Every structure is written in C-alpha cells, then in structure tokens.
Amino acid sequence: MATTVPLTAHAGEKQDTEHTGSKREGRLLALSSTVSVALALALIVLTYGVRLEASRLLVLRTLLVLLAAFEAWTGFPQLLSARRFIAANGWPDHRVYHAVLQDAGVYNLGWAAAFALAALDPVRNAAILQAGVFLFLLHASAHFLRYFLTFLGREPYFPPRLELAAALPLITLGIGVLLFYPS
C-alpha cells in the first residue's frame, strides 16, 4: 500500500493540519468571501445606479484595470519566484511545481495584458471580454467541481475550502464584467 503525503507537508516534517493548515485556509476563505460579497454588492448597486452608457463603460474599464492588476500581481510571483511561492503555500519543493507555477504565471500575465487592452476600448475589444468571462466561469466551475467531489469521497488535491476561496472571486468578476458589458 502506497503512502500519500499531503501537499502542504514539508520533507521530514509532520503536518498539523488541524491547527496551522485549517487556520490559514479559514483566513483565505474568509478573505475571499468577504471581498467577493463586497464586490458583488458594489456591482449590484452600481448596476442599478449607473444608467448612462458612458458611466457604465467607466465602471467596466475600472473593473478591467482591477482585473489586469490582480492578474499581474499573481502572475509575476508565479513566473519569477516560483520557489518562494511554493514555500509560502507550504507545497513540497518539486520541479514539477516550478513548471506548473511558471505556466500559470505566463497565463496570468497574458490575461493581465488582455484585460489592460480591453480597458482601453471595451466596445472594440468585446471578444476579449467574452473569452475572459467564459474562461473565468469555466475556471470557477473546475474549482466548484473539485470542491463537491470531496463530498463523494474523492481525495482532494487541495483542501476543499481553498477550492471555494479560488472560485468565489472568479465568479464575482465574471458576473461583474457581464453586468457592465457594453450594449
């Protein structure tokens, strides 16, 4: 019978998931939930309060600039300092994680550039918005699927609460872009 090592265990260390891992996961989920709910409420209020097309485009541009900044903020550490990113997340230091993180960094930086371009002229760059919303919602669906599969007995790659923490902002931002999509 093969033994499995949780992703958050370091070589030669015992993992205290009940105290350290679950506290960190709880904080991430609380932060993700709070920011997602606050952003969703702000977007809903803005949807009903902002009627002029020019103002709606300004809200969309602001959202796209925030998306670009967030994607760049996550992409640079993944691409340029994978080892520190891995250590900060408590993952084992394997070469495969370096490659996957660097790929994710390139993906995030690509979306940062695409969202920045779309913010310049959302009407002209509608295809970027459509692809972004589709991929954000698809990405969120993958996190939700992994979260719900743990209830069916599937051993998770990441703790289920982290899957929720990753899905909530993706859905919120995707819906935000849809709410202010240029007509």
Task: Describe the fold and architecture.
This protein is mainly α and 183 residues long. The protein has one domain. 76% of the residues lie in helices and 0% in strands. The longest helix has 33 residues.
Q: What percent of the residues sit in helical stretches (DSSP H or I)? A: over 70%
Described by strand count, sense and barrel closure, the largest sheet is: none
Q: What is the terminal separation in angstroms?
A: 59 Å
Average pLDDT confidence is 82
* Residue windows where pLDDT falls under 50 for at least 5 positions: 1-20
Order of helices and strands: HHHHHH
The number of helical elements comes to 6
Give the DSSP E fraction (strand runs of 2 or more residues).
under 5%
Overall number of structural domains: 1
Number of strands: 0
Radius of gyration (Å):
18 Å
Features:
single chain, 183 residues, mainly alpha, 6 helices
Q: What is the structure about, briefly put?
A:
The protein has 183 residues and is mainly α. Helices cover 76% and strands 0% of the residues.
